[in-house]
Amino acid sequence: MAPIGRIGRYSIVGRIAVGGMAEIFLARESGPRSVARNVVVKRILPQIAEDQAHIESFVREAELYMRLRHPNICATYEFGEEAGSFFLGLEFVHGVTLRDLADRATRAGGMPLELVAKIIADVARALHYAHAQKNKSGEPLAIVHRDVTPENIMVGFDGSVKLLDFGIARFKSDQQTTTSNGTLKGKFAYMSPEQYRREPLDARSDIFSLGVCMYETLTGQSLFDRGTEFQTVAAILFEQERPSIRTLRSDVPEAIDAILASALERDRAHRCPSADVLERRLLEWLNGAGHIVRNRDVGEFTAKMFPERARAGPKLNRSDAVRESTAPKRNRSIETLAFRADFEEEEAKLARTQRRKKMAIGVVGGAVVLGVLAASAYAFSASTNRRADELSPAPSRQDSGEQPSREQPSREQPSREQSTTKN
Hints:
It is a single chain. This protein folds into 2 domains: 1-92, Phosphorylase Kinase, domain 1, CATH 3.30.200; 95-316, Transferase(Phosphotransferase), domain 1 (Orthogonal Bundle). It has a 6-stranded antiparallel β-sheet with strand order 1-2-3-4-6-5. Strands 7-8-9 form a 3-stranded antiparallel β-sheet. It is an alpha+beta fold. The chain is built from 14 helices and 9 strands.
């Protein structure tokens, strides 16, 4: 299948899925002499690529992924950045989620008990590995996955079982020795009681979530989902009696019922103490019951349930929108430098223009001020001369040689209209 785009060194074949924070692509990584392999590229969504909180979450996920190397945890090949967006190069698992497998197997008569035990034991092995990790100083990282669900467990057509998505995992990094326990993260029907109570979490929280996955895989029914978030939370926290799985599957032996009940204890003090213990109990049951389950057995059953997908691979979105989003982009740093150079040039031009404007305004302003001052001086001089003329005494008649008039000033006669009115 021809590539439709490129992210980093990976040729994008199509988009597999889109989540709340990232999108998942099937890609090809090529080497010399046509050597190539399928990989998964997980890229932070473009619309939140500038959101600092989401960026920090993605970087922490990458930091944790780069620490983990286990056959039951999806491998990480690269953490990179292109055109301002972070991405992860991850192992491609050719298979289906445990959710899809359990749903289809339920319609076909149910998942074989020994296969479920093998799959859950593999996930428990992965969790114990993560829970036991330490930092460079030898101190526990205290990793808690917090999102162990059937959607985050992949079952390959080769029988491999992989735990995915440490995106909301809690752990102590080398830079951050304390983490917030007050943040509620996870899927409602799989969260432990202590998560809802906002208590400090440890590995036993993941064991509870894995127990829910086991119950639902065996029965094909949700254990706690009650239709609404409130009722689901109430079921996890307050329901006193949980029905035995044997009421739904009579072929489940008491030993498996007891193992499951221990994983689902509401009080973590009485819960299965570690993922390592859970794995050992399941393997002991398998051995004691005479079940020899290989990866090949798991793979053959999975391929039998999904023959079309085993042949064709995952469904891909190869639309124009995906092509555009993965089209090669210019290096953002080069674009930034070019923009900055253009900006500085325009800024210099603007500064020169402003200086010329200021000079012109200064000249015009000076001329106006001088004109106003000149006009004011002229007006003041004229006003002073008039006042001086008014204040100087007028020459007397005697001095001028004229005789004073003897006639008295006549009284003003009323107008015709005034006379008519009086009469």
